[in-house]
Amino acid sequence: MQSNQMQPLSGKELAYISDSISNEEMLIKQYAATAGVTQNQTVRQLCQQQVQTHTHHMGMLIQLLQQHQEYAPTQPQ
Fold it and tell me: CA torsion 49→54→60→62, rounded to 10°?
């Protein structure tokens, strides 16, 4: 088997990715809320940058899941 072929993700890997997506969502919400209430322009800009960064991270995680979807087993293991 070639090393560049995708393999199905294990349950542990799926749980880790799911937790990571949840964490990214939480960070996005927290930074967005802080950006919305702060009076400090520098803090607001930093929070908005962090929202973009964590949105990108979440998108990468979701894309990873989508790439592996066709390799997922169709029956529970």
Answer: -140
pLDDT of residue 73: 60
Residue 32 is which amino acid?
A: A
Residue 23 lies in a domain: yes
Q: How many domains does the chain have?
A: 1
Burial of residue 1 (CB within 10 Å: 0-12, 13-18, 19+) is exposed
Domain presence at residue 2? no
Q: What are phi and psi of 40, to 5 degrees?
A: -85, 120
Q: Domain residues for 60?
A: 11-66
| pTM of the full structure | 0.79
Does residue 16 sit within a domain? yes
